[in-house]
Amino acid sequence: MRSVGVEEELLLVDRENGEPRALSHAVLAAASRDPRGNEEVFESELQRQQLEFATSPRTDMGDLAEEIRRWRAEAARHAEGVDASVAALATSPLEVSPTLGTDERHLWLQEHFGLTTQEQLTCGCHVHVSVESDEEGVAVLDRIRPWLPVVLALSANSPFWQGEDSGYASYRNRVWGRWPSAGPVEVFGSADRYHQQVADMIASGALLDEGMVYFDARLSKAYPTVEIRVADVCLDASTTVLLATLLRGLVDTAAREWRDGVPPTRHGVALLRLATWRAARSGLEGELIHPETMRPAPAEAVVRALFDHVREALDANGDTAGAQKALAELLDGGNGARVQRRILHRTGSLRSVVAECVRRTLE
């Protein structure tokens, strides 16, 4: 059974007013003094209003859920010591002036990308799924491309930007797309072609290194995994686990197709970009672009198509019942974007949105 690991980026906010606070260094210092020795789990990110953690590789989704909740709680505990809270929000609902980190890499990004770097306060969820080789990994990347916008729609959790409703379910995706290497990619066909493409991109001088290859899904440079990076950080930990479950099924399905000689669907990047835009705009409301037909279809029908596509793999992994339950709850209660807008409609206050999301982050 393939292992799965999750990286979540969390927003650090003031405990009283919900405004993002540049406290990642203080929170990491608190973690380093913790006798439990979990400081290596947490890392700083591009902006100092962010904190990231990574789980261990897991094969059991119950264990993965437990670890995600544990590290969310530990992050909150460390933040509490500096009068802050953590929120699983992909963008800040309240206005913010991001505070860039000060290491050499961050300064290089600021020099080369200017306002794109300065404004890039977004929190994502990255899911790592193990593969047996780079060749299998690239075969998987080639075959999961049309399904990634559906994953974005499920995770969408960033409707607000600088105190305003963006009109998008995932405005994080639109902001993230400003990086020149971000987004959908073409079919590579082989590991050699993938690595040559990455080498050529770095040789262009536009990217600092392989870490700046921000494809929606890529081969991890550190682990024997495919790293799927398209999702917003999810408000509820249960949604994160659902994504991890579906993505393991998607990788299993793609690898089986490759072994069976089934060629990848060759939708062009232009169509995939449109499908990604539609997912970012709509989330689970209205229509999405169906991955098989590239035509509009109701969002729930497209989500069901993803579930059906990976059903055999879910059955083999013993994940079907848990995924069915979590998916039904998500479709009924809504993703983070719907929840945030519902809170705003009820309270009329973006500060209340943040406060409620802080609570749900740890639920």
From TrEMBL:
<dbReference type="InterPro" id="IPR050141">
    <property type="entry name" value="GCL_type2/YbdK_subfam"/>
</dbReference>
<comment type="similarity">
    <text>Belongs to the glutamate--cysteine ligase type 2 family. YbdK subfamily.</text>
</comment>
<protein>
    <recommendedName>
        <fullName>Putative glutamate--cysteine ligase 2</fullName>
        <ecNumber>6.3.2.2</ecNumber>
    </recommendedName>
</protein>
<dbReference type="InterPro" id="IPR011793">
    <property type="entry name" value="YbdK"/>
</dbReference>
<keyword id="KW-0547">Nucleotide-binding</keyword>
<dbReference type="InterPro" id="IPR006336">
    <property type="entry name" value="GCS2"/>
</dbReference>
<dbReference type="Pfam" id="PF04107">
    <property type="entry name" value="GCS2"/>
</dbReference>
<dbReference type="InterPro" id="IPR014746">
    <property type="entry name" value="Gln_synth/guanido_kin_cat_dom"/>
</dbReference>
<dbReference type="GO" id="GO:0004357">
    <property type="term" value="F:glutamate-cysteine ligase activity"/>
</dbReference>
<comment type="function">
    <text>ATP-dependent carboxylate-amine ligase which exhibits weak glutamate--cysteine ligase activity.</text>
</comment>
<keyword id="KW-0067">ATP-binding</keyword>
<dbReference type="GO" id="GO:0042398">
    <property type="term" value="P:modified amino acid biosynthetic process"/>
</dbReference>
<dbReference type="GO" id="GO:0005524">
    <property type="term" value="F:ATP binding"/>
</dbReference>
<keyword id="KW-0436">Ligase</keyword>
